[in-house]
Every structure is written in C-alpha cells, then in structure tokens.
Amino acid sequence: MQHDKQDARLDGPLDGIRVVELGQLIAGPFCGQLLGDLGAEVVKIEPPVTGDPMRQWGQGDRPSWWRVIARNKYSVALDLRAAEGQDIARAMIAKADILIENFRPGTLEKWNLDPADLRAANPGLIVVRVSGYGQTGPYAARAGFGGIGEAMGGWRSIVGDPGSAPARMGVSIGDTLAATYGCLGALAALHHRNRTGEGQVVDSALYEAVLQVMESSVADYSASGHKRTRTGSVLPGIAPSNVYACSDGEYLIGANQDAVFARLAAAMGRPELAADPRYATHLARGAHQAELDALINAWTQTLTVAELEAQMIEAAVPAGRLFDPGDMMADPHFAAREALVTLDDIELGPVTMQGVFPKLSGTPGSIRRPAPRTVGEDSEAILERWLGPAKGEPA
C-alpha cells in the first residue's frame, strides 16, 4: 500500500516521531503498532536469525498475525546480549523519541540499557515499560504474561458461565490493554515534553490495565461487599441485554433503557409490556431478568436473524448480529469506513486486516509499509540513516 508523500495528511499525526521497539510477542509490539499506525517511524530491534516469535504466531495453515502487529515497522537485527549490539542500540535510542520494551523488569538493566542512563544521554526520551506487575512492588520481578494479568486484575474470575471454570476472552486482551495504556501514556508524555523538554518513564502493568476496565467491581465490593461472579451472557440487573436465539442463528439485543424497551415491546406486538409493573422500569426489569429474557427468546425463535434485524432497525432498538471475519469482509459498513484494509503480501498474497483506529479528520493514520519480511532486512538502511555511515554495519 503506497501513498503520495506530498500529501502530509497521510503521514499521520506522529510523523517525525522516532520509536525504538525492543519488545517481543504481543504487548510491546502492539504498542509499537499503535504508534506506527499514527505515523511514527518505528524501528523494531529483533534478535538475529530467530527474530520475534510473533513471526510464527497466528492460526490457520498460514499464520498472519505478524502482518498486522509488525506493519509500519522497520526491522533491525541486534544481539542485545552482546556488547556490540548494546552499543548500537544505545546509539539508536539516543536519537529516539520513544523506547518501548516489555521484558521482565531488570532485563534492560542487565543488558546495560538502564533507562536512567538512556535518559541521561537523551533527556527527552520517553521510555514505555510494559510488564506483568509493573516496575515496582513485591511482585515486580515475577514473570507475567497477559493471562496472569487478566487473572490478577479480576477479568478471568467473571468470564464464563455460572458453575463452569473461568473462561478466557478468546484474544490476548490483557496484553493489548496494557499496550494501549502504554501508548496513551507515551502520548501524554509527548505533550509534557513539548512543554518542558523532559521525557519520562511510562510504567504500564498488565494487571493494572485490566483493573482499569473492571468498571465498579472493586468499588461495589468496598461499598457493599458485593462480588461479581460469572454470569454467562448476561449482566445481572441489566435487562433486556442478551443474545437471543433465532430460527437460524443468534442475535444480540440491548434494550435496557425504558424508552428503548417500550420500542422493543411494540416491535414484539406486546406494547403492554412497557407498562407492566414487572418490566416498566430499569430496576423492575433487572429484578425479573430471567423471565423477561425467556419471553423475548420465545419471540425471537419465531424469526430468522434477517427478519429480526429488519424489525430492530425499524424500531430503532440497539441490536446486531454476531459477526465472524467472513461477515466483516462482506459487510458494507466495514467497507464504507475502511474498517478493514487489504495489503498485498509477497508470500501470502492479499491479506485483509483491521484498519487504523481511531480515525482523525485532519491527520489520519495509515498503513504505509507492510511488516518486515525477514529479520533485520532494514538494518543497513536504518542504521545509516539514523547513525550515519560509520555505524552502518549491523551487529
């Protein structure tokens, strides 16, 4: 995918920002993906030969996750366990605006890349550190993958059906949340640097990123001793809001506001339900959630998904079918908003993936280059451009 360099809008709002990414697998690289999508020049430092394990990750007979998480990046091969590789990394970081890493705390220091020293050499440097438990505290040195952060942050204990073992989200939500908060912190730190010239360290812990999206679960327990539990597809007290069976599939309806429920009741041919004391108010519907869901489910089973969707659109009731990737690729709304984009891959051919979000009206992000095909393929060009010909040999 190419664009005219004369059109500065397509370079993104972070055009001119240099990022060195030392991370691997998901959290650090996803933070780099977000910054790259918004226009930053992201140089990914990979171990020689083996590269980032993400190159082999994904599902199906042609794994393609690397094509998403490494887009808009350059690959430089350096052995950070060797003095020569460390020296070149330090020289690059001295030219960078942002450094991303997601190793266990203490790893950078062991590699002679202590952020304090890096920032002494480059006072404007912003260091994004993503880890399981954060850089401080009694658990800091523990190994912590995304699932562990999801468990400690409270997510895993409430996901799944009652009486079943805790379930996972199906995607690495802990990693991507921590990466997103790391990106948010980096952008806030850039604003601070623009005013003061000073960089800083952004400490993003997996468990805290998960904790941040846990709504009022801790506050509810603190205030009343209430603990959320696994409740399957429903949120207790919020009704109707569930997935309902149709004659040919399933469909999600969210009509838990009074006026919206009244429109749903009318669409069902049961307008009297909106005035029924059992369902007339938010609290009443929550108290009678199971019987209301059963009533709605009995109605939806008489309709196909398409028939139900047409009625919900006509009634202005928030509702929608459950999409899989095939549905997304065929949907006109995804196409109209370019929510999905297709890149030509030299090995896989056309590969469709999610686009760049959020959408900015003046300086939108874009996918300006595909993921690096080989480990270190940009080493010579990047090192010469960043450091000059004298540093132009990869370690």
From TrEMBL:
Keywords noted in UniProt: Transferase
Molecular function per GO: CoA-transferase activity
Pfam families, per database record: CoA_transf_3
Keyword hit for Cell membrane: no
Name of the protein in question: Succinyl-CoA--D-citramalate CoA-transferase
Taxonomic placement: Bacteria, Pseudomonadati, Pseudomonadota, Alphaproteobacteria, Sphingomonadales
